[in-house]
Amino acid sequence: MPDLWVFGYGSLMWRPGFEHEERRPALLRGYHRSFCVYSHVHRGTPEKPGLVFGLDVGGSCRGVAFRVAASRAEETRRYLQAREQVTLVYREAVKEVELVDEGKRVEALCFIVDRKHGQYAGRLDFEAQVRLIAEGKGSSGKNPEYLESTLRHLEEAGMRDDGLSRLWRAVEQRLRQSPASP
């Protein structure tokens, strides 16, 4: 069995949870990072959902590719299935990603949003995103921390995302105005 590459675009970038041999900036074409998944576990509950990223069709997504040694590939895949597919809103897929620092292409395990799943939020308007993120809290913590950590790690990797920066500023403002922030 060959080494396993895993593509991270949200919390996997800053909290992979598995041993890896290397971590490289990567680009996935054909999908984009989108706040399109209602979180019922990690950043919200079914009664009060949060909002998390999904890889949705169209565009491209800059993220991180992790190389996992072949000897740990199956164990890593099982870990990721348990973590990412709790409610089956993500489908496991192997997609070609580009390691941007050298232009090399590798096949990587990705988790793509299932547009037919009940937790698929689609394209929510800006204010709905702000509200859901500001109020969401689940087993992995508060939803604003998820957005802030993702944005910070993108910036640390030299990946600027003006839309996420604008969203973070709006969430921060809402939290400052709310007497009972999450």
- CATH third-tier fold name: Hypothetical upf0131 protein ytfp
Uncertain regions spanning at least 5 consecutive residues: none
Average pLDDT, to the nearest integer? 94
The CATH superfamily is Gamma-glutamyl cyclotransferase-like
Count of helical stretches? 5
Can you tell me the CATH class?
Alpha Beta
- What is the strand tally? 7
How do the strands line up in the largest sheet? 1-3-2-4-5
Total domains, how many?
Answer: 1
Alpha-carbon distance between the two ends: 45 Å
Structural class: alpha+beta
- The Rg value, from CA coordinates, equals 16 Å
SSE ordering: EHEEHEEHEEHH
Morphology call: globular
Beta-strand level of the residues, as a percent range? 35-45%
Overall CATH architecture: Roll
Query: What percent of residues adopt helix (DSSP H or I)?
Result: 25-40%
Main sheet specs: 5 strands, mixed, barrel
Polypeptide structure, described:
The structure is a single chain. Helices cover 31% and strands 36% of the residues. The chain has helices at 11-14, 73-84, 126-135, 143-156, 162-177; strands spanning 4-8, 22-39, 50-68, 90-99, 104-113, 137-138, 141-142. The chain contains 5 helices and 7 strands. The N and C termini lie far apart (45 Å). The chain has 182 residues and is an alpha+beta fold. The chain has one domain (4-177): Gamma-glutamyl cyclotransferase-like (Hypothetical upf0131 protein ytfp). The strands form 2 sheets. The chain has a 5-stranded mixed beta barrel with strand order 1-3-2-4-5. It has a two-stranded antiparallel sheet with strand order 6-7. The longest helix is centred in the last third of the chain and has 16 residues, at 162-177.
